[in-house]
């Protein structure tokens, strides 16, 4: 199949874009792509490719921009229930501690998730996954973490593997047993850390090798924050995970700077995520590493907070920078990477070009898949979007609606913007 | 047709909700609606209505919330071109005056609009209108105002009448010849005011009576702001319009408080819109009137500004409060009222219930149609939404995607949330 656009083809070619190089879109005006067997076999000017592949069936993107599918490198995709009630309390001015006392907060999601069957977990997660896909995300990271006990965490993994299997969207799975201190260990947090290190991680490795033997090991993540896991506890979790061969991620500096970002750099984590309160020294540590700084602007937006990741500082320091939704039921229930771009432009002053690179090739590197996805280059998986607009800068400029018209995943074409049709 | 939901039916019954009464959703659990000939003929519990109408064909909303269609009371729906380029300049830190010097600002849209044929205007506006509809807006106000000369303003009116005709969404049309000082009058702003008052408005009346004799007269609006029309100039425009029988609207206090809101109240305008910098005295004037205070939170969001309408103050003063998108190419290109609700909850601390009332029954009153739309009551037009969620508080809590599954317009059912389907 030869897909051609009469406006812009954004290739994002050339690998992850470090620091000030962020925003190189590799634009081919009136560009085309040839796809065979789920892969990209040629990229170039439409005229040239039509000559080189005269018998290839064509898909005309019209004036729509052709670009790589979004890669969302940080989501808490799977949970049961919702916290709409808590949102209403928050907007009515109730204090966080009163909300906790009224049964709100992360532990309410843990309770709902622990009691949900795998069928219910899949049924409740599927619509979120479809929303992501319909809004242009072709690969998403997905974390466990609302179980906080071995049995539920493994059920979440099983559900995520099933969803990955059934859906056109690819999942990069992360184990986040260390998301919060389990309620059973409220008065003995170190006891829970020991449980994660000594029981959960070895069990996870064995389970994974039995249930997903053909897949690489999942990421192991930890919530390094005051009130969750200290820097020392986070180190214990990550060092053990690394010893077992797991690739690493970290939640760091959302509310407080306790050194999680530097820890991620030191241990060679794939990414350090949130980074709202990161110190200049820790930004420097990231910049010297291959750890991607992943900003989650939906979280401050969701909570109506004023502080966002100091993205321009991170970029100026020459670090690797990416963006994600952080889709979760407490602080940020949004599935759309397009909206992440709109926030990044407004609240972190990225240009649309920088935000696009941070949601494609760089976010692919944050889940260590930049060799196969995140750009339109020969040999890569054919994961692409046809937008309903003729200029990439409409991403960011416009917001609140879906500008994706068709999603191409592993060479298959899905229409996602049908407008409407009358059924009765 | 009998439409029933196993979750919530929000009726919003009882007319516009003033001040502290805002947020009365009139919820019927497991409610149903009977629709005949485009109108609502019965509202009540599903069991009772199924007994009373045993032979009625049914539409099962499943667990989806059933609610009135959104009414968007302030949009600049029709223009040619875009200003994506200008957005990129802004995000790169360029100053507004430099952007103007580079050919940006409202006058660039005026230039593009003046040179566009009516066919091009309709073709470029249609996708916006469909996006509105797919996101749940069943009636929208739509302003002219990018012509600033009689011929183009009339072409915009003609295009809007054609779009109103072809589309399932209803338009409430507004004449905004006084949107900005026309470039020809740059050095003689009063000359343009005289042109609007002495030529445009009388021409408009005659034109309307010829081209749309069966429709009520459109609203006349004016941009009352430092740098646009002074309070005295705005009064001249509105008084003349009122003398000619037009209903009134005003843009007031977006950047500066020059008394537009009080002027609207004094002249009995249907609404005063923006109201970011409105004084306490002017809020009091609104509260004593039947003029609806329409807040446009997408505008500060679009510009990443920190000041929003003091909604809680306006509500506490017992004024009528509504919300709108302000969809336009300069400051806020968003078609979704769901996103307006998300902003209103976060940045003006409305509850989801208040925001829903402000986007249905109260926004219907802002275009003086609360007698026929904006709520689910016997005798009203059958304009309703079936959401893909089971609790109304998911509006506001979730954001960035579309939670509307089906739109019912004048009794016809349109599916708008199809997920995706594979086409190749």
Helical fraction of chain A equals 25-40%
Please give the number of β-strands of chain A: 19
> Which class best fits the helix and strand makeup of chain A?
alpha/beta
Shape of chain A: globular
Which percent range describes the beta-strand content of chain A?
15-25%
CATH architecture of the largest domain in chain A: Alpha-Beta Barrel
CATH fold naming of the largest domain in chain A: TIM Barrel
How many angstroms separate the termini of chain A?
36 Å
**Overall residue-averaged pLDDT value of chain A:** 95
Strand order within the widest sheet of chain A? 8-9-10-11-12-13-14-15
CATH superfamily of the largest domain in chain A: Metal-dependent hydrolases
The total domain count of chain A is: 2
What is the CATH class name of the largest domain in chain A? Alpha Beta
Radius of gyration computed on alpha carbons of chain A: 21 Å
Task: Determine the oligomeric state from the structure.
Answer: homodimer
């Amino acid at each position: 199949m030869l897909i051609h656009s009469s406006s812009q083809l954004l290739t994002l070619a050339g690998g992850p874009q470090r620091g000030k190089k962020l925003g190189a879109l590799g634009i081919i005006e009136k560009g085309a792509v040839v796809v065979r067997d789920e892969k990209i076999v040629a990229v170039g000017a439409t005229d040239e490719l039509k000559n080189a592949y005269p018998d290839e069936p064509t898909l005309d993107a019209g004036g729509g921009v052709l670009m790589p599918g979004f890669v969302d490198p940080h989501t808490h995709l799977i949970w049961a229930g919702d916290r709409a009630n808590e949102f209403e309390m928050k907007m009515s001015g109730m204090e966080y501690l009163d909300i906790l006392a009224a049964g709100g907060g992360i532990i309410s999601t843990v309770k709902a998730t622990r009691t949900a069957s795998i069928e219910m977990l899949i049924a409740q997660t599927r619509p979120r996954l479809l929303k992501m896909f319909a809004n242009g995300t072709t690969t998403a990271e997905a974390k466990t973490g609302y179980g906080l006990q071995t049995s539920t965490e493994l059920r979440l993994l099983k559900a995520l593997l099933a969803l990955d299997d059934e859906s056109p969207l690819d999942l990069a799975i992360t184990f986040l047993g260390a998301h919060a201190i389990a309620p059973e260990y409220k008065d003995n947090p170190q006891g829970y850390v020991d449980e994660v290190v000594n029981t959960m991680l070895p069990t996870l490795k064995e389970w994974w090798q039995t249930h997903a033997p053909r897949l690489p090991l999942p990421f192991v993540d930890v919530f390094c924050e005051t009130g969750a896991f200290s820097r020392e506890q986070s180190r214990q979790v990550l060092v053990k995970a690394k010893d077992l061969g797991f690739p690493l991620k970290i939640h760091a500096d959302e509310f407080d700077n306790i050194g999680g970002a530097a820890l991620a750099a030191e241990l060679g984590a794939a990414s350090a995520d949130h980074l709202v309160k990161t110190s200049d020294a820790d930004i420097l540590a990231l910049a010297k590493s291959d750890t991607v700084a992943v900003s989650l602007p939906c979280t401050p937006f969701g909570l109506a907070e004023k502080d966002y990741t100091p993205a321009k500082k991170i970029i100026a320091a020459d670090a690797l920078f990416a963006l994600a939704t952080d889709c979760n039921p407490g602080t940020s229930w949004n599935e759309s990477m397009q909206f992440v771009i709109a926030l990044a432009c407004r609240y972190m002053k990225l240009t649309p070009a920088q935000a696009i690179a941070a949601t494609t090739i760089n976010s692919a590197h944050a889940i260590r898949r930049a060799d196969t996805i995140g750009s339109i280059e020969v040999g890569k998986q054919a994961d692409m979007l046809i937008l309903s607009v003729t200029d990439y800068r409409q991403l960011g400029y416009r917001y609140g609606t879906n500008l994706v018209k068709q999603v191409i995943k592993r060479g298959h074409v899905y229409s996602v913007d049908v407008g409407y049709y009358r059924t009765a």
